[in-house]
Design brief:
alpha+beta, SMI1/KNR4-like, 6-stranded antiparallel sheet, 3 helices, 6 strands, globular
């Protein structure tokens, strides 16, 4: 996952700019440091014991979804689908995952950070 060029670019930019908090579509979002990425998957891709939580049916956490941060208000995950690079959020604590797209491409978040950093 970290080897996907766009996701790697996002983590590198977060690391070098030191911008971890952004606002996107009225959501206050905390973006993970590279070092937080693995632990950030717990409760979504894996349980605390490392067992996979991924399923193939609609409503299950999908293989292509990776958490990159969270909504600081509600704690809901912010995740990227590496198949199409859309960025989503979904309400946690529900029996099924119903993602809402908050960015059509991870580049929107990358540009948001760049614009904030280079002002």
């Amino acid at each position: 996952m970290m080897h996907h060029p766009k996701v790697y670019e996002l983590f590198q930019l977060v690391q070098t700019s030191r911008i971890h908090d952004i606002e996107l579509q009225s959501l206050e979002i905390y973006l993970f440091h590279k070092q937080e990425f693995k632990d950030g998957q717990v409760g979504y891709r894996y349980d605390k014991k490392g067992n996979l939580l991924i399923g193939e049916q609609e409503g299950n956490w999908q293989e292509s979804w990776f958490v990159i941060g969270y909504d600081t208000d509600l704690g809901n995950p912010i995740f990227v689908d590496i198949q199409n690079l859309h960025v989503y959020t979904a309400e946690r604590g529900m029996s099924t995952w119903n993602p809402d797209c908050i960015a059509d491409h991870v580049d929107e978040i990358i540009e948001h950070i760049r614009n904030s950093f280079y002002r």
